[in-house]
Amino acid sequence: MQVVLHILAPAGYLGGPLNHNPAPAMSRKNKGSTGSTPGTLLTRTRDMLVACPEDYLTINKATGCSPWWLSNFKRGLLPDPSVNRVQKLYEYLSGQPLQL
Q: Are 45 and 74 in contact (CB under 8 A)?
């Protein structure tokens, strides 16, 4: 007895044509409020993350921010990241509580 197994994959998964238009990648011009203003908590935290030698898993364990979130935050792809996450990441990277 021979069993034949057919696997269905979405279009494009196995190299077939895609029939949809994916959303355009966000550019620096259309990112929204990503903290491009120097001196903001968002900009300082992103700059510290860019300079940080630690890997995302280490930072994830300490902050709870997922590696996906950290990667996208670092590249400026999150149009409006949560202030609580940004603050937690800032406090971890700076080693001190945020002073208001």
A: no
- Write the DSSP string, the chain: ----------TTTTSPPP-S-PPPPPPGGG--S---STTSHHHHHHHHHHH--S-HHHHHHHH---HHHHHHHHTT--SS--HHHHHHHHHHHHTSPPP-
> Does the predicted model carry a pTM greater than 0.85?
no
More confident residue, 39 or 16: 39
> What span, in angstroms and rounded, lies between the C-alpha atoms of 65 and 69?
6
Q: What contacts 12, CB < 8 A, 6 or more positions away?
A: 18
**Each residue of 41-50: pLDDT tens digit?**
999 999 999 9
